[in-house]
Amino acid sequence: MSGTFQLAACAEMLWRDKPVDWRASRLKEMGFGVGLWNWPDHDLAALERTGATFTIMNGYLEGRLADDEGAAMLLASARATAQVGKRLGVQRLNLHGTGLGEGGIPIWKHDVVTGPMWLKARDTLHRICDMAEQEGVAFTLENLNLLDHPGCPFGSTADVLALVSSVDRPQLRINLDLYHTQIGEGDMIRWCGKCLPWIGEVQVADNPGRCEPGTGEINYAGVARALKTMGYRGPVGMEAFAAGDAEAALEAFRAAFTV
């Protein structure tokens, strides 16, 4: 952990030949929190035994924000996932505009989001917040770039900010994924400033390649300084592959965000 940010890393993307509980234990030993994707893929008892700090996990298995059927699926799935989140002590449960299929392709594609879809999505998120308040958990909504996730509704940084700020409840924050922001919009530091009041977590990977800071075009040391200057003191998660050695990748990430 740096002096400014709680640092974490996505266990699924590192040491991919090792069991996920081994990865969580190693991240804990190195001083990092642990991010997870879909919980049915894992031995929850083994993860519990690691004693790791689980910073974020996918907060649903199916569903979507902007229609009645999808919202009902999302609410049920998110409620079940909340129980797993509480068991592991997960700090944030992550949502998207729609479920993602193989290769991250949206299951429910919409290139044009209508006014009624916006209103339904906001209503669905309020219902998520009601459930989260009952269960004592917190959710985030993540931005996704449309190059890798074509047709994903509410994927852009601007759309996620619009939804989360309009709901404006402590049970729902932004998972600001700067890898996706760089591909979708660029201008990352200004987006950090716009999203700042609602950020629950910042996620990072360099571009191109989605590997650790220092492997691509993004000046993450400059981003880290800007986040510190604007007063952000929350978690930063590396959701990235290692270009080579996983531990070297984690140390490069730590160096970039130790400010």
Features:
9 helices, alpha/beta, 259 residues, globular, 41% helix, 8-stranded parallel beta barrel
The tally of helices reads 9
Low-confidence stretches: none
As a percent range, the share of helical residues equals 40-55%
What is the spatial order of strands in the main beta sheet?
A: 1-2-3-4-5-6-7-8
Report the β-strand fraction as a percent range.
5-15%
Annotation, overall tally of beta strands: 8
What is the straight-line distance between the termini? Answer: 11 Å
Q: What's the order of the H and E elements?
A: EHEHEHEHEHEHHEHEH
Average pLDDT metric: 96
Q: Specify the biggest β-sheet.
A: 8 strands, parallel, barrel
* Overall 3D shape: globular
Q: What Rg, in angstroms, do the CA atoms define?
A: 17 Å
Structural class: alpha/beta
Write the layout of secondary structure elements.
Blueprint (H helix, E strand, L loop, with lengths): L5 E5 L9 H10 L3 E3 L8 H7 L3 E5 L9 H21 L3 E4 L19 H21 L3 E4 L14 H11 L4 E6 H7 L3 H8 L3 E6 L15 H10 L5 E4 L7 H11 L3
Parallel strand pairs: 1-2, 1-8, 2-3, 3-4, 4-5, 5-6, 6-7, 7-8
Helix pairs in contact: 1-2, 3-4, 4-5
